[in-house]
Every structure is written in structure tokens, then in C-alpha cells.
Amino acid sequence: MKLIVLDRDGVINEDSDEYIKSVDEWIPIPGSMEAIARLNRGGFRVVVATNQSGISRGMFDLETLSAMHKKMHELAGVAGGHIEGIFFCPHGPDDKCNCRKPKPGLFQEIQARTGFNLEGVPCVGDSLRDLQAGASMGCTTFLVKTGKGKKTLEKSKDELPKDTLVFDNLTAIAEHLVPDDPFANNR
Questions:
Q1: Catalytic residue list contains 7
Q2: Per the residue annotation, which of 9, 15, 126, 130 is the catalytic one?
């Protein structure tokens, strides 16, 4: 088995500068659930690493976050996929925690909990901090142009971790990593 680490907002679901604060606002990016299923069929264990500072900002609570993640799990399941784990940072930018990306805390926790050495493991994000956190643990970094990805590419192109691969969306990454999926055309 292989492992892949995905950011949530802007990679799996639509992002918003106003934050995703409710289950109704959590809307999957077209094709993202099927991409997760394709990754699973290709032997990848899928985990999510996400900053959720809306909790510390009082915009939503842990119960609401749990409901959003339940929806994500259910929709992945409907598409034939499975998300093995969700690792999140509830802190704000001023909390000085080690888990808020670009710091490596979430990735260290993923490594400890899964037993995977993250060297070379694909890490997918739409922001510079997503990729910096993964790169700090030796991950292979993938930038998607969904969410804040296009803006990240325009503003931070020279700051991206070395050898970052750029794709239109999670679907394109899944097709790149799992090119021979006999089920892809049957869905």
C-alpha cells in the first residue's frame, strides 16, 4: 500500500475566503470523490491534512467540523472511495502551535499514526503552506489549480518547493498516479 496526503479546502471541496462553516457550504469539487476512489483502487491510502482555524475564530465548532467530515466520508463512499483519516489543526495563526501548516505537526502526526515514512509520499495542496508542510517531511509536492491554486501559482511560483508538480485538479493527479484504472470509464 501507498499513502497520499490531501489538503481539504480547495483540493477536495470548494474553498471560500469566508471559510467553509457548515455542512451545506461543504461542496465537493466536481470529480474529487471519484479521484479519491481511483487513488484507492491504485493502492493509495488517502489521508487529509487541513488547517481549520474557523474553530479558533468561533465560526464553527468541532461538532460542525465532524458533520462536514461525515459528509465527505459518505460522498467518497458513494463514489467507491475511502478516506482513511483526517488530521486537522483547530488553531489560529497567532496560537503558535506546531500543527498549523506550514509547520510540520500534522505531517508528523500522520507519520506517527500510519507508520509511513513520508519521504516521497505525494502531498496535494492549493496553497504554498500546504506544500511547505509536506516538503518539510520529504513529501513529493503537487499543486492543484483549484481553490487558491491559480493564485498560489501566480504569486508564489518562485517559492514552491523544488520539483513541485502542477495539475489542474485532483482528478488529473489521480489519473497521473493511477494511469491504468479499468474502472475509470465505467463510472
A1: yes
A2: 9
- In this prediction, residue 124 has a pLDDT band, given cuts at 50, 70 and 90, of very high
Q: How far is CA 30 from CA 8, 36, 116, 137, 146, in A?
A: 14, 12, 29, 30, 11
Distance CA 165, CA 185 (A): 25
User: Measuring CA to CA, which residue among 55, 125, 46 is closest to residue 86?
Assistant: 46
Using only the alpha carbons of the chain, give its radius of gyration: 15
**Residue 185: what pLDDT?**
58
17 is annotated as an active-site residue: no
| Lowest mean per-residue pLDDT among 21-25, 92-96, 131-135 | 92-96
The pLDDT, as a whole number, for residue 136 is 97
Q: Find cell 496535494 and name the residue.
A: 124
CA dihedral 156, 161, 163, 169 (to 10 degrees): -60
Amino acid in the structure at residue 134: G
Cell numbers of 63, please? 461538532
End-to-end CA distance of the chain: 24
Supply 120's cell numbers. 516521497
